[in-house]
Amino acid sequence: MLHKIPIPTPFPVGDINVYLLKGRDCLTLVDTGPLTRDALEALEHGLGAAGVRVEDLDQIVLTHYHCDHVGLVEHLVEKSGAKVLAHPYTEPLIARDPDVEAARGEFYLQLYRGLGLNEEQKETALKQILYFLDYVGTAHVDTALQEGDRLPGHEEWEVLYTPGHALDHISLFDRQGRRMLLGDHVIKHISSNALLEPPLRRGEERPRMLMLYREALRNVQALDWEIGYAGHGEEVTGHKELITKRLRDMERRAERVLETVRAGKSVGMDITLTLFPRHFEQLPLIISETIGHLDWLVHDGKLKIEDDGGLWRYEVVEECLK
Ligand SMILES: [Zn+2]
Fold first, then answer.
1. How many structural domains comprise the chain?
2. Mean pLDDT in the chain?
3. Is the predicted pLDDT of residue 304 greater than 80, yes or no?
4. Which three-class secondary structure state does DSSP give residue 303?
5. Which of 244, 275, 307 is the last residue of a domain?
6. Looking at the structure, do residues 102 and 69 belong to the same domain, yes or no?
7. If you measure from the C-alpha of residue 22 to the centroid of ligand 1, how many angstroms do you get, rounded to a whole number?
């Protein structure tokens, strides 16, 4: 049995859906809602409607480390003793390791320098990233879930590694029942974003999130399922068409990014503000969108980067016409 429980969030995205899986001997909550009193009340109420108390929970699965999905985990573990199950990449994040957080800060600063953010823009962007940490608790991953694993206590659900929206993102697939638990991998009413993330280890190359996302979208598109339970909004049906549309929208945006560079914008931040002139309050998001597409164009050989004393200048690679 699967119960959907909508939970309010203080974020522009609106409600998040968490899911209660009732197995024969196992009660599992998929995602938690943010760390707010309203969210906890809604969760307790939703669990109650399914005849369950927080104390009864055996397991908490986290689809990815974003505050609306993991915020209440510490509180719920304290109250229930539930085990936490997530991708191994979730552990260093949710443990709130100070070294990891310092490395993240450094990473963003260096990146913002390359993209040409001024001091005020850097400060605004970092503040917007840190703001979300007010809505998460600390926890540890007890059981790592990787591609192909079965969800303990609910063996019909198979784990899929679906990076892109987040590097630690997993989805759950019930092949027999033709159902998916999607987290934020696919959302019906909005396109999910491939958010920038630092590399797993300091000094490594950062992951190309949009490209990972496209690949993971295609993987999920190829699977046979009828209904997808998403982290936000209504259930996803007709996923093959929906994912085709999402992929096409990205291609169109890449085309616009290329045009913007061709029109003379060479610095990441200028390109970002040309594409998204009215979204300054969501700076990390619009930077992620822009750089995701820039990465992709560079990878495809349509753009190249010149390092101008730590500032990256994007240039169109003109094809040789013979
Ligand atoms: Zn998310």
1. 2
2. 95
3. yes
4. strand
5. 244
6. no
7. 24
